[in-house]
Write a structure and sequence with these properties.
257 residues; mainly alpha; 13 helices; globular
């Protein structure tokens, strides 16, 4: 297993190449991303067990979306079976990755109670809007920074782990290790990539929404719907495709089993 060390500019190319893949078959990729989100939302409807089921399902579904991006890039078909096909190889490891990621996230949130007495954790676990509204006045800056710091190595270990487990059939420990090392070796492009995502998935949509609110001052909800639909049908598929491009550039498409 070899991971390439790429220049910083590669991080921006992942986004532009992801958009290029999206443009090849926007309808298919958009519908698969919508199906992905519907599956996660549906599973989360069930208290407690739903959150675990959703977390366990995410790695396999993510692999399915990356396979769809790969198929589209190659001019091959992609459909709902492609999305669900992410569970076909090394299923046990994919399920374990999801469960362990949930555990790591809860552990990070648990440690945040050291600095805020559990306010952030209660806010994240609140079931109703009323509960969230009651807790929203709290200052979450310090605990959020602590959680972000704790989750950074976790994200590095999990970033490529699902696809390494599914496409290369690596066991749990090796998939996490090689993902962490690949991210460590390529921290510069990942920094540029993060800034690029911030620009394209947060700042630009925010500016578009602001302009629409100025142009259509009496149609705030309509403007919000337009931006939300664009985020769901254009930005989200592009981001998922960029995950695949990052993997392809770092590990090499020729190494896919």
């Amino acid at each position: 297993m070899r991971a390439q060390t790429l220049p910083a500019a590669a991080g921006w190319r992942w986004i532009t190449a992801g958009f290029a893949i999206y443009r090849r078959n926007p309808l298919t990729l958009s519908m698969l991303v919508v199906a992905y989100w519907f599956a996660i939302v549906f599973l989360n409807l069930f208290p407690l067990i739903g959150a675990l089921a959703a977390s366990v399902a995410i790695p396999g579904l993510s692999v399915g979306l990356m396979q769809a991006a790969c198929n589209v890039e190659r001019g091959q078909s992609a459909n709902i079976r492609t999305l669900l096909g992410g569970f076909r190889e090394n299923t046990r490891t994919l399920l374990l990755l999801g469960a362990l990621y949930l555990f790591a996230t809860l552990a990070a949130l648990g440690l945040s109670t050291i600095v805020d007495g559990g306010e952030l954790l209660r806010f994240m676990l609140a079931d109703s809007r009323e509960e969230k509204a009651a807790l929203s006045s709290a200052d979450f800056t310090l605990p959020a920074l602590l959680v972000a710091l704790l989750m950074t190595p976790v994200l590095m270990a999990w970033w490529f782990a699902p696809v390494l487990a599914a496409w290369h059939r690596l066991p749990l420990g090796k998939s996490l290790f090689f993902s962490f090392m690949a991210c460590s070796m390529n921290w510069r492009p990942f920094l540029v990539y993060s800034l690029g995502l911030l620009l394209s998935a947060a700042i630009l949509p925010g500016l578009v929404l602001g302009l629409l609110l100025i142009v259509l001052p009496g149609l705030q909800q309509f403007a919000a719907v337009i931006v939300s639909v664009a985020m769901a049908l254009v930005v989200a598929p592009t981001v998922f495709a960029s995950f695949y491009v990052g993997y392809r550039d770092i590990f090499g498409i020729s190494e896919i089993v």
